[in-house]
Write a structure and sequence with these properties.
- The chain is an alpha/beta fold.
- The chain has one domain: 3-Layer(aba) Sandwich (Rossmann fold), CATH 3.40.50.
- The chain contains ten helices and seven strands.
- A seven-stranded parallel sheet has the order 3-2-1-4-5-6-7, sandwiched between helices.
- The longest helix is centred in the middle third of the chain and has 29 residues.
- The chain is globular, with a radius of gyration of 21 Å.
- The chain starts with 7 loop residues before the first strand and ends with a helix.
- Bound molecules: NADP nicotinamide-adenine-dinucleotide phosphate (NAP).
- NADP nicotinamide-adenine-dinucleotide phosphate (NAP) binds next to α1 and α4.
């Protein structure tokens, strides 16, 4: 942290939804923010209001040159990066069989490789600082998969795996990692959902019920922003934070079901030990 008690945040996907709400909350609090967006002019009103503490930067997270340039620009402006928020992302809604290879790869390019590449690009700075916090915006669907959201879920499950490993690598270096797992919130997310170009009629009922779940958005992104700030300010931040009743309850149900299934099949799980001489013992 450069300036006494204020932090420098770098947030991806700042133009709307969670990103925009978090930028506003961080500025209101008095911290500084490198607000990145594909169209940074969408942040002009905040630049007028907070000319000293917001630094808007163009960034498409699928563009490696823009990733490097955004970090260089952040460091030139504020000399450090205390918090990276990997927020940019979108959802695909459709059955696994319905999506083209191109649709699936594009979804992974943004939701997974965007997060991975931003993280890898910021880590040298955080390692040098011996401090930092990376917030990865996962999803309720990053813990519990639903028919119709399989491809989206796969990208978020991948973020969960990377983050769970990353925290073990970087915590000893003074860097925290937190997965944010929102349920459904009122953002532009529902409007920017990508659907398959060639839907298959047999999946329509499954997709329609998932569509209904997505458009019901009980969560308030401004309150999510407050929760994210609370995590960053905590002396003991969690690896995972569910946001919203749907997410918190749904994840609890999944954990219970997984535990029950593990117990029910435990004798089979434990029946697979190799009983001969091990390869290691022969060497
Ligand atoms: N809303 C929910 O219910 C919900 C639930 C769980 C998780 N999430 C996650 O929350 C995150 C934010 O989504 P949101 O709900 O706030 O939706 P949103 O309002 O549509 O915001 C998505 C943001 O991501 C940006 N973005 C998309 N692709 C990008 C790219 N290639 N490079 C840079 N920015 C890109 C968008 O920029 P443009 O304006 O340029 O398109 C926009 O700023 C996503 O990771 C999403 O998966 C949302």
């Amino acid at each position: 942290m450069s300036n006494s008690d204020t932090k420098v945040w770098l947030i991806t996907g700042s133009s709307s939804g969670f990103g925009r709400s978090l930028v506003e909350a961080v500025l209101k609090k008095g911290d500084r923010v490198v607000a990145t967006a594909r169209k940074p002019e969408q942040l002009d009103d905040l630049v007028q209001q907070y000319p000293e503490t917001i630094h808007p930067v163009r960034l498409d997270v699928t563009n490696p040159q823009e990733i490097q340039a955004s970090i260089k620009s952040a460091l030139n402006q504020y000399a450090c990066i205390d918090v990276l928020v990997n927020n940019a992302g979108y959802a695909t809604l459709g059955a696994i069989e319905e999506f083209s290879d191109e649709d699936i790869r594009r979804q992974f390019e943004t939701n997974f490789f965007g997060v991975l590449n931003m993280t890898r690009a910021v880590l040298p700075t955080m390692r040098k600082q011996r401090s930092g916090h990376i917030l990865n915006i996962s999803s309720f669907a990053g813990v519990v998969a639903f028919g119709g959201l399989g491809i989206y879920s796969a990208t978020k499950f991948a973020i969960e795996g990377i983050s769970e490993a990353l925290v073990q690598e970087v915590k000893p270096l003074g860097i925290n990692v937190t997965l944010i797992e929102p349920g459904t919130f009122q953002t532009n997310g529902a409007a920017s959902v990508i659907t398959p170009k060639q839907p298959i009629a047999e999946y329509a009922a499954t997709i329609d019920s998932m569509q209904a779940a997505i458009v019901s958005q009980p969560g308030d992104p401004a309150k999510a922003a407050v929760a994210m700030i609370q995590v960053v300010e905590s002396d003991n931040p969690p690896l995972r934070l569910a946001l919203g009743e749907d997410s918190a309850n749904g994840i609890a149900q999944k954990l219970d079901a997984m535990k029950a299934e593990l117990e029910a099949w435990k004798s089979v799980s434990l029946s697979t030990a190799f009983e001969g001489e091990t390869v290691g013992a022969r060497n």
